C-alpha cells in the first residue's frame, strides 16, 4: 500500500449501556475502531455482541433507554468550502448530527423492505434523498435517479423507477436501498448485515456490488455481520466482537490465516467452507454469551473456551500485539502462558482456504 491512508473515523473507548426493568445491560464495553478512506472494516460477532449498538453511535441513533457512558468518535470529512474538518460525533447536538449524516454518512440495514416505503415508487423515494441533499429538480433530478440505479447495477432503469418496492426482487430492493444511501454522496457507508435476508447467490452479488462501489467511489465502509465467511472477500480489516468488546483485530489475512483468540478459532471453525460438501458437519461454539446484565469478570469468553486458563476467570486479558496491525486480547498470548496451538482441524481448514484463495 503505497498511498497514504487517510483516517475517516477514530472511535475510542466507547461504552454504552441500557437501562432495563431488570437492571443495566452493559452492551458495549470499551470499543476502539479505526476506519480509513477507501477501505472496508468488518465487525464480526454473534448476535447480541454489540455490533449494531456500536455503529449506530456513528449515526446518532439511540434508544430512549440507552446511555453513552464514555467514548469519542472523531470523524474527518471535507466540508462545503473544501476544508478538512474533524468532529467528535459523540459530542454533536441532534441537529448537527442530522446535517452531518445527511451529507457524509449513510447506512444500509438488513431488511430492505423495512427501509423502503411500500406506498411510494422507487423514483419518489430516491428523489426525496437527492432533493434534500442537492436541491436538484425536474430533468436533472430524473437524470440523477437514473444514474444512481445504473451505479448499483440495475437495468431497465425507467421501468424500475416507476415500480413499487413489492414489484422488485429482494436483491433488487437491496440495490435500491444502496442507491438511496449513495444519493448523498457519503464518505462513510455503514452496512448492517446487508445480505442476511437474501439468498446465497444474491448475497454474493450484493457483496461484489458493495466492494465495487467502495473502490469506485473511494468511500469507507463499515460492514457488520455475524458471518465471518461473508467478510473474507470484502473486508480489508476485521474486528472480532464478543460480549460488547473487541477480542481480536487485524487485516483480513491476519484474522483468517493467523487467528489467535479462541473465540476467533470458534468462529472460523463454524464457518461453512467454500467447497462445502453436503455431509460436512459444522462445528458450533458450545454455550451462550454471558448475560450483560451481570458484571463480566475476566475474559467474557472463558466459560465457553476449552483453552481457558485459570486467570481468564479472574482477570480481563489486555491486548497483546502480534504485529503492527494485529492484536488479540487473550491470556494465551502472555509469555508466561502454556503453549497452546489452534485445533488441528482449523489449521487444516486455514491451509485449505489459502489454497482456494477464498480470502481477499
Ligand atoms: N433498547 C435496548 N434495551 C435493552 N437492551 C438492548 C437494547 N438495544 C440493544 N440491547 C442489547 O444490547 C446488546 C447488543 O445488541 P446489538 O443489537 O448491538 O447486537 P448485535 O451484535 O448487533 O446483534 P445482531 O447481530 O442480532 O443485530 C444485546 O444484548 C441487546 O439485547
Descriptive overview:
The protein has 360 residues and is an alpha/beta fold. It has two domains: 40-60 and 74-235, Rossmann fold; 259-356, no CATH class. Helices cover 34% and strands 24% of the residues. The protein has twelve helices and twelve strands. The protein has helices spanning 51-59, 94-104, 112-115, 122-134, 138-151, 157-161, 170-182, 200-217, 228-234, 252-257, 262-269, 344-356, and strands spanning 7-20, 23-36, 40-44, 66-78, 84-88, 105-108, 188-192, 220-225, 237-242, 245-251, 320-323, 326-328. The strands form two sheets. It has an eight-stranded mixed beta sheet, with helices on both faces. The chain starts with 6 loop residues before the first strand and ends with a helix. The mean pLDDT is 91. Bound molecules: adenosine-5'-triphosphate. The site of adenosine-5'-triphosphate (ATP) has 16 residues, from strand 1, strand 2 and helix 1. GO terms for molecular function: ATP binding; ATP hydrolysis activity. It is a peripheral membrane protein. One of its GO terms (cellular component) is plasma membrane. This is ABC transporter ATP-binding protein.
